[in-house]
Amino acid sequence: MPDFVKVAKVSDVPAGSGKIIESGGKTIAMFNCEGKFYAIENTCKHRGGPLGEGMLSQTKVSCPWHGWEYDVTTGSCSMDPAISVATFPVKIEGDDVFVSL
Fold first, then answer.
1. Which residue of 19, 25, 42, 71 is 20 to 30 Å from 62, comparing CA positions?
2. How many CB atoms lie within 10 A of CB 7?
């Protein structure tokens, strides 16, 4: 069973937005897609842009540096399906958001 770490409050990540979280020596990007939370590796595979600062449209985030798109549910890159970022399991308990790193 994976170990989950509290990383945020639900209210810290409004619907349709993302937030960069530092925990367990990792930098992850957390997204709230209409109440469903997802966590992915924060670093774009193209040039290292911060995905947590990108624009979220439904379940796709665009890297703010060069526009590479990733599906936050799977980590898959829209530009090249052979490229993906790591995903992390998320669970909500009350108003707390937990991620398994």
1. 25
2. 23
